Amino acid sequence: MIPPRLLAILYGVGLFAHASAVPVAEPEQQVLGTLNREEDQIESSRRLSGRFLHITDFHLDTHYKEGTSAERVCHRDTGTAGFLGAEGTDCDSPQALIDETFRWIERNLKGEIDFVLWTGDSARHDNDEKIPRTAGEIIELNKVLAAKFIDVFEDSSAARGLSIPVIPTIGNNDIMPHNIFREAPNRWTRRFTEVWSKFIPEAQRHTFEEGGWFSAELVPNKLAAISLNTMYFYESNSAVDGCAASSEPGFEHMEWLRVQLEILRERKMKAILIGHVPPARSGDKRSWDESCWQKYTLFMNRFRDVVVGSVYGHMNVDHFMLQDSRDVDIVAATEDSPSDPSFSVQSRSDYLSSLREDWAEMPSPPDDKASNFFSSDEWDMEALGKKERRFLEKIGGPFAERYSVSLVSPSVVPNYFPTLRVVEYNTTGLDGVKLWADTAYSEGSFESLDWDAVKRDSSEDVAEADEADDGEDVEEQGKKKKKKKNKDKKKKKKPNFKIPDHPSKSELPGPAYSNKPFTWLGLAQYYANLTEIYEKRASSKTQEGSHTVEDENTAAHVDLYHVEYDTRDDNLYSMRDLTVRSYFRLAKRIAKKDSSDESALASDPDSSDDEDEEAPNTKRSKKKMKRPRTNQVWRTFLDRAFVGFLGDDELDDIQI
Ligand SMILES: *[C@@H]1O[C@H](CO)[C@@H](O)[C@H](O)[C@H]1NC(C)=O
Ligand SMILES: *[C@@H]1O[C@H](CO)[C@@H](O)[C@H](O)[C@H]1NC(C)=O
Fold it and tell me: pLDDT confidence of 508, banded at 50, 70, 90?
């Protein structure tokens, strides 16, 4: 609940004083900007398509030169760097890859998606001593990318000049020195406010400049995006120190996030969270400061009626992570964690293996039948056996509400192959809703909330909350886990922020948990097989013999991206939707150990293993002959993590 006094401020006139500075397309829309939303649905030719694009880690490098050496980060010497990028290397992306990617988006996705989530790292790495980056270059590269999005989605008939919202966030390579981001306002938040002026809602620009975070409506009054500034959570950012101390920007960021989610809950809206660095926490990998991870996991759990899902980039490997709300122990979360190591294929696969181990330790469905345990929507708890009931209780009920999920998309930069993803979501009951393109800025909207004003008024409430006994059960949860260590010391401590309430029990779980409007139904991962493109190009060259430069340029307009996999018709992952329990089920199937793990070469005669499903294509059938009892779900997960780039032998080496 938002304190009534805070609500009064939020909806009061004072807060919207600056609204008049915003251009409004049609005069009558100013009048419509009220809290009474149901009537203001207008006729429009546009409709929701039920899809969005998640794209990340472009890493544009204008120093990239075709034919140079990957050892020299594709800047010099002679090598095999291709014109669209050097797949499977640490080279960044040439302009041609960016151009072709946007050409593909324009041809294939324009008009077919409702918004874009763009999760940072648009600038090249600082990996060439001979050409150090400058702040000007970083901003320039980001401007190039912003202009590309504007170019594709510009629409003069739309209220804000773009046909759909594009939501950016700051990456650790979009700043200088990389990873280091001081308390805002700073030169980066100031510059990005300008660079992203078309994407950050006018009324959020002040908030963004003050913190590097902002919120925006995606479907007015229904769905919002919350763009997190993960630089304040990032373990490698030595300029800040986590989210526990109230003097830290990470603390304020989490307060802001909590208030956004409370307001959205109050308004019966849903939210998608986006950020650059994901909350990875497995093996010796800790991407976020532990105190930030704790709050994030707490909020994801408490606001599970509001948060639809969250998407990240940065790691360049396709995977997902589950946050376990039972790991939340706010008061104890102060210890230091190891920082982000350099992320080679080796450390990436170690990390994926450690994720798998974590997943193996999650509660297992009775008889290990994770693949069919969640086949039904409804359980008659009474009719279930004792084991089944116990299992469901352990995971937070039939919707696995104990957990939350964060998705990581691999990158455009071809560490493996360039890639992007399109997520499909449920639009049931959303026919005729007012769309973003038809909505000029209006003062009743969610995004018109100025954090500074909210903060001023809510500080009293936060202080009051410190007194409340609300924090107790979090402490209780943590204590169970930590086995009474430092019990007396901890008991006296209280969280220094307001612990949000759980969702109301009378409602069904939110769209992240049960299939309803805005639930993510599936995702299609697209990739560009650069090796294949180069081979085709080489063979057509030798066939045709002579070739003009012009021909070559036309040949460059290849149909770049193709579906790598689509969870909607993938009978190996066989995910009914992308709800938390679907990911829980997938995680348990990935984690399932094959008996060949115990006795290296022996093939397991127990054919009742329901996880050993048919390989989806001939390529994998061959693999199967070589390793008869491999867990195909794990193998496929690994294959996809590296965008299909690794060969059988490399995958065999990883699989332990
Ligand atoms: C969307 O959610 C509704 C429930 O609100 C459900 O009946 C419907 O089957 C879902 N649509 C899809 C395509 O899953
Ligand atoms: C990419 O193309 C190469 C060359 O045609 C092929 O050998 C490889 O299997 C392809 N990889 C994927 C993941 O499509």
Answer: confident
- Is the peptide bond prior to 168 cis by the omega test (within 30 degrees of 0)? no
Q: Indicate whether 345 and 212 sit together in one domain.
A: yes
Residue-wise pLDDT for 23-52, tens only, equals 333 333 333 333 344 444 445 578 999 999
Are residues 403 and 477 both part of a single domain?
A: yes
Expressed in angstroms and rounded, the spacing between residue 617 Cα and the centre of ligand 2 is 13
Residue 322: what pLDDT?
98
Range of the domain at 617: 602-656
* Ligand 2 center from residue 647 Cα (angstroms): 9
Instruction: For residue 594, tell me if it sits in a domain.
Output: no
> Is residue 606 over pLDDT 60?
no
Asked if residue 405 belongs to a domain, the reply is yes
Tell me, yes or no, whether 506 and 612 share the same domain.
no
Alpha carbon of 543 to ligand 2 centroid (Å): 21
User: Does residue 611 belong to any structural domain of this protein?
Assistant: yes
- Please name every residue paired with 320 in a beta bridge, in sequence order, or none if there are none: 407
Residue 505 φ/ψ region, left for φ over 0, alpha for ψ in the -120 to 50 degree band, beta for the rest? alpha
pLDDT of residue 629: 67
Q: How many distinct structural domains can be found in the chain?
A: 2
Residue nearest to atom 13 of ligand 1 (CA): 426
Q: Which ligand number lies closest to the CA of residue 425?
A: 1
Domain assignment present for 302: yes
